[in-house]
Amino acid sequence: SSEVEPLLSKTRLLEGVEIVRYVSPYDAMTFMEMKLGRQKNLLEGIQPTVLPPSFEIQLKKDYRNSTGIKEVVARLKEIPQFEEIQYGQEWVETFSVLVHILRLTQWILGGLLLIAIVFIISNTLQLTISSRREEIEVMCWVGASPAFIRIPFYVEGLIQGLLGGGLAILFLFLLHQGLFLYIPPSMQAWLAKIPVLFLPPETIAWIILGGIVLGFFGSIVASMRVLKYK
Predict the structure, then answer these.
(1) What is the dihedral of CA 151, 153, 157, 162, to 10 degrees?
(2) N or C: which terminal CB in the chain sees fewer CB atoms within 10 Å?
């Protein structure tokens, strides 16, 4: 209508807004009938005109958080044609707190995991070096340089780090693929609307690179603790 189009255009121009869809009373009635399913006869005698027209707004990716949502809602409230704005405030705030807790937990566990990886690789290489001590002594007697002796262990550390990063990616992929197998059917229908994407290539590259760096660092620690030269 003549009133809807200008308001639709104005809403689309708001910062943070990606998609705006107009929902007429008839569309709302159709949606309610679909949700009620076999019980849609409860709506018999109710005219679609009793339902208010509305806008469904999807935000840009950078605004899909508690702060971004509040900013867009504040701009929407400045438009007098909008009588009521519903965005699940309590749910959004609770979800935001949960996300912050998960991120903090992620950093703590990530730090502990990094320390554990360096410790495991370092001790593994220490055992390897100790088992080859006689070979190393022979190489020292024939004049091999410290770098020549250390390089194979550095390479082994790099390979272990690479394999560790690759196995981590494989584990995450299997977890991602099997996620819905352990989710109740009632939640699967709701989560189906949320795209759960696997890690982007850049993140995968960083994880593998991080594994290589940690493996190399662990090999340096091991060689410094075991291989000592006068």
Answers:
(1) 70
(2) C
| Beta carbons within 10 angstroms of residue 150's beta carbon | 19
How many structural domains does the chain have?
Answer: 2
Among 143, 155, 142, 144, residue whose Cα is nearest residue 223: 155
The first and second tokens of residue 95, run together, are 């979800």
Output the CA–CA distances (angstroms, integers) from residue 180 to 13, 151, 196, in the order listed. Answer: 37, 45, 10
- Can you give the pTM of this predicted structure? 0.53
**Domain encompassing residue 43:** 3-87
216, 154 Cβ separation under 8 angstroms:
yes
CA–CA dist 74, 139 (Å, integer): 73
Each residue's pLDDT tens digit, 37-59: 778 777 777 887 788 888 989 88
